[in-house]
Design brief:
With about 220 residues, the protein is an alpha+beta fold. Among the domains are: about 110 residues, Glutaredoxin, CATH 3.40.30; about 35 residues. The chain has 5 helices and 5 strands. Strands 2-1-3-4-5 form a 5-stranded mixed β-sheet, covered by helices on one side.
């Protein structure tokens, strides 16, 4: 059986789209219509009019690059040296359009990668970027900063004390002076009271002795 000139042999490009714990979720990638994106990717046709098969994966292992899309080369593209291309952070419509255009032109092995996708190339072995550590400061630098801080604190304390002295004694000093004054008055009052009791007791003893003498004289 002959093959027509418009017939197409071989397998077309294929897409693997991550849709699992992170990719395709609003929690991980907010502000993106993930269902609409998947529908748009599923509607891609190649230059021969073949619909590109789309397979969804629960997890492709590089969640920090969500959303992840893998473009598999067609049979013809693989024969020409094309290999699967991993794309990360596919979260904009322009990136989906670029994937569509690339596959229409032939995809991996047959057409150059669109410039807009160049910064989104990743791999299954990609490592999560490490957080930048804060630079470690030397002990001498820390000691110097501590000295400067203590010097500034002493200067501020001296300035505050000087201002307080110019303003005169504050409310706390006034309360203390008043308390001392009341204490002195109370002490004097107690002393006078004790003195009065002593004098009264002495006077009572004198009267009693005088009365006793009178009685003895009568006898």
């Amino acid at each position: 059986m002959g093959v027509g000139v418009n017939a197409v042999d071989g397998r077309p490009c294929q897409l693997t789209v991550c849709r699992g714990c992170c990719c395709g979720t609003r929690k991980k990638v907010p502000g993106v219509d993930h269902k609409a994106q998947l529908a748009r990717l599923s509607a891609i046709d190649d230059h021969s009019g073949r619909t590109v098969p789309v397979r969804t994966s629960k997890c492709l292992g590089i969640c920090f690059e969500s959303n992840v899309v893998v473009v598999q080369p067609s049979q013809e593209g693989r024969a020409a040296g094309g290999r699967p291309v991993w794309l990360g952070r596919v979260t904009e419509d322009k990136l989906v359009e670029a994937i569509d255009d690339w596959i229409f032109e032939g995809g991996p092995g047959l057409a150059p990668l669109p410039a807009v996708l160049a910064d989104h190339i990743t791999s299954k072995d990609a490592k999560k970027p490490k957080k930048r550590k804060k630079p470690k400061h030397s002990k001498s630098a820390k000691k110097e900063r501590r000295k400067e801080r203590e010097k500034a604190e002493r200067k501020a304390a001296g300035k505050a004390a000087k201002q307080a002295g110019e303003a005169g004694p504050g409310p706390k000093a006034d309360r203390k002076a008043e308390k001392d004054k009341l204490g002195k008055k109370d002490k004097k009052r107690k002393k006078d009271k004790a003195k009065g009791k002593t004098e009264k007791a002495a006077s009572g003893k004198g009267k009693k002795g005088k009365k006793g003498k009178k009685k003895s004289g009568k006898k």
